[in-house]
Every structure is written in C-alpha cells, then in structure tokens.
Amino acid sequence: MKVAVIGGGLAGVECAKALSRNGITVDLYEMKPSKKSPAHKLDTFAELVCSNSLKAERLNSAAGLLKHEMAYLGSICVETAYECKVEAGGALAVDRLLFSKIITEKIRNDENINIIEKEVATLPEGYDGTVICAGPLASDALSETIRKMCGNGLSFYDAAAPIVSAESIDMECAFTQSRYDRGGEADYINCPMNKEEYEAFYEAIINAESAEVHSFDKRKDVYEGCMPIEVLASRGKDTMRYGPLKPVGLTDPRTGHRPWANLQLRKENKDGTMYNLVGFQTNLKFGEQKRVFSMFPALKNAEFLRFGVMHRNTFIDSPRLLNGDFSLRNNPHIFFGGQITGVEGYMESAASGLMAGINLARRLKGDETVVLPKDTMLGALSRYISDESVKNFQPMGANFGVLPPLPEKIRDKQERYMQLAIRGMESLKAFAKNNNLDGEKND
Question: What is the CATH number of the domain that holds 181?
Fold first, then answer.
C-alpha cells in the first residue's frame, strides 16, 4: 500500500509518521526548496513561520491538554519540541531552526517515507489514499485544485511579529519577569510604558503606513486570532492595553507599580540571542515598524533581525465537506490535515495531520476510522470542524469551551481545568485501548 501526503509542514510530517508507524509507504510531496510561499524561508520541513511558541505546557490548560494527547498518540512534533525547547515561562517554545532541522532528519531517515521535491498542481494518481496537508499557504495551482474539489474556500491574512537582537535591548528600561511570576523570572523581557509614552505610541501606530497587500486582502477577513497590532489599535485607544500590551500581573521594579502598558519579548532561540515581540503581528512597512516600535524605551536602539510580515491563509468549509475523521464526505480515500481544515494553531494543525494519518492507515487495513471522544481536546476539535450545524465557519483553536462540562460544578477555574484535563486523558487512554490505537507505548 502506498499513500501520497501533500505538504511537509507540521500536519504533513505528523501524517507521514503516523502512516509509516503502521507499515504504510508514503510519498511525501513538498515544493520546497525549489519554490517557497511568501512566508517560508527555510528549505526544511515543519517550518514555524509565525511565533516560536507552541502555547501553554501545563496539563490544566487547553493547549497543554492537546499536547499531552498528541504525545500519547506518538506525535513527532511534541517529541521534537522537547528536544529543542527554550525557556518561556509556562509555554512550550522552541528554537525554530533546530525544531525544523531535527524533524527533517527524522522524516528523511524513515525508510517508509520517500521525499518528492516538486510542486503539486493536481492530485497525484495511482495511490491507495491521499492526504492534503498543503496548509494555508498552498500554491495557487494546488489551491485551485482544492477549490474545484471543495467549492469556494475562505481566505484571510495571517501576520508574523518582528524579531530583535537581544543585545540591542536596553535593559535599563526593561525588566525580566513572567506574568504573575509564573515560570522562571527571566523567561520574558518586559518593556514598560507610562501613560504619556503609551499615548504617543498609540497616535504613531494608528497613523503609520501599512505595506501594500494584494487586491484580494480585505480588512474584514483578518482572522481575530492573529490580529495585526495596527488593526487592533484602530479599534480604540485602550484595546492594546487589554491585548498584547496588558500590564496585569506585572510589577516594574523601578517604580514598584504596574506599568501603564507593557510589551513582552520572548526568546526566539535556545541561545537567547533573539527575541520576538509577543502579539505584535503586523503589516506596517518595514521603516514604519522600526520607527514606531522603537518608541518603547527598551527598544529605542533595537536591531530588527526580521520585520513583521502578512501572508495569505485559506481554509475549506469543513463542516460541509469533512467527516470527523478528516476524510472527505464524498471521497473516503482523500483526507485533509492542518490549518486548511479550520483548526487554528501550530499544535492543532499538527494534531489534525496525526489523526488523518492514523485514520487513513486504519481504513487501508480494513478497520473503522475513529473520532476521539468528545471530552478529549482532539476529539472536540474534530467534531467542531465536521459539525454541520456550525454556520459561518471560522477557525477554532484548543480551548476548554469546546469540551462538554463536568457533571459537578467546580468554582475554582484552575481546578476545573485540571479535572477536565484528567477526564480527557483518562478517556483517551481507555478509547485507545479499546480501539487498538498505538498510544499506550507513549504513556
């Protein structure tokens, strides 16, 4: 049996590995290095193009529960993330270059996976099954093939935050602290502003010039989960202070008080030589980014190693098109994985590829495909993207709101989250045992 997996991103590598573990030969198609999307720079697989954070690590968080579920099911991305982790408080952040390099080596060294470096314009023929993990940045030719297969898709723009060099940050105007003192104190560099500085910054950003974008980029299509900072600022004077510049949980040691506004910088690599501006995805012109973002006293001499960029993002109308096992309703041997399915986030995308691979393997072996229980994070997301009752479909990331409530009411939020997480993991383990999934070896 041989399967085609299209795309070497997070979903594609998870899918290929899941198929390989089941003894199925995989042709993994990836158009890099000969051709790259506007957001991709590396020649390697599983490139992280936005943040280097994979979100919260602790079990009693939605993102943490998802990663625990993935690890139990044998996720290559979670495994690799811990091999190149950088400190980021309660988040699992990685050295993105090392992350991509290690995953690429694992994929290339897998004897069941053949790498085919070419752009796919139409679905390849002669396979027992196909998984489309082309992601939200699929080439125009493949996007047109998908559009014809699935009808009109939805599009929006994603945004990436700038990166500055660590040595150029003025630490006399900054301090190291995690919000509410969670994690090690040096995990984040905080760049505070007083009220006067913030108001000047606000005026500058709402009047700054944005980069030219393609004609089909419509402001109303910007996805709320990755909002450009200048768009957020345009919604009101204090919106940034309730978003990425929120000062809550922080105390400026120079004043003994909470800052009026605060920008957090997070490590971009293991060595701590680069930091990204948390929540500052942007489409401002490069010169404007340097001018406006340097208004933070701690960044007045900042060296920008990479400016923020905007890039296209597309996803299919999954509630009308996909089953909960990520297969097409009108073709059970074609699966989709990744953000193109409408799951939102790095790990969510990887997890959908993992489930697509597991399910295609099961189908080829004559077993029933599976949708994980609704009280698991992966099961709840799978059900959301395939729920025909969902109207005006928008991407969904891991959150406890997608899980069914506990039978008993627990007032304390963190305790409630922990109980939801414990229930989810117990449910996953029982389901895996009863359905011959290969998770127990990862327990």
Answer: 2.40.30.260
